[in-house]
């Protein structure tokens, strides 16, 4: 088995799309908006709404219990900042935030924990998804990326002391 080193940690090399995206750094062609110490933020390539993004740990593990406390703390820190940025840019009237742990719970990539953040608006039910597996978005993914990148470039890196 091959091994890779990320943030000083050695882990098995995998063919995981979320592991691969995390290696790219901030990159428009990969939709990566922000890279922190333990997590990164990426636009969902198959969004349900404009601004649908994910906070993803670099560590390849599928459950909360397999992630470090600093990783989980950074996930919440980044969700907090992402919520504010999406509110400022899109003025949604609500958000869906979620984590699906395991295939049975709906995880599309069950081996790599990640959280979703979706802006929502009154009356935004998208019947096209449920009828034809088609999504209708008011802007392209690259337009969304270009719109959000300046705000994410101002998010400070998390500097927190985690009790052991």
Structural summary, described in words:
By secondary structure, the chain is of the alpha+beta class. Helix content is 28%, strand content 20%. The protein is built from four helices and seven strands; from the N terminus they run E-E-H-E-E-E-H-E-E-H-H. The protein has helices at 17-22, 69-90, 127-132, 141-152, and strands at 3-6, 9-12, 32-35, 39-43, 53-57, 94-98, 115-120. A hairpin with a 2-residue loop joins strand 1 and strand 2 (9-12). Helix 2 packs across helix 4. It is globular and about 35 Å long. The chain starts with a strand and ends in a 12-residue tail after the last helix. The model is unreliable at 1-6 (pLDDT under 50).
Structure keywords:
single chain; 164 residues; alpha+beta; five-stranded antiparallel β-sheet; two-stranded antiparallel sheet; 4 helices; 7 strands; disordered N terminus
